[in-house]
Design goal:
Helix content is about 65%, strand content about 0%. The longest helix is centred in the middle third of the chain and has 42 residues. With about 70 residues, it is an all-alpha fold. It contains one helix and no strands.
């Protein structure tokens, strides 16, 4: 292997490492954005109002023949 081949291999490896670092940084940033969006969506969900006007006997049994 000559000097030019070693230099070319070294440059190629450095470029690949830089590309991987950039890709990893973009992945982490997109995961942060997705987590932030999910947190905002969960915070925006309103709890379901409880129903107080139902008779007390409702919800005590399950109809298994239907």
């Amino acid at each position: 292997m000559d000097i030019a081949g070693i230099a070319k291999l070294s440059t190629s490896m450095a470029e690949t490492g830089n590309a991987q670092e950039v890709g990893l940084a973009m992945l982490k940033k997109s995961q942060d954005i997705a987590a932030s969006t999910a947190t905002q969506l969960l915070d925006a969900v309103q709890p379901a109002p409880s129903v107080q006007n139902l008779p007390s006997h409702l919800g005590n049994t399950i109809n298994t023949k239907a």
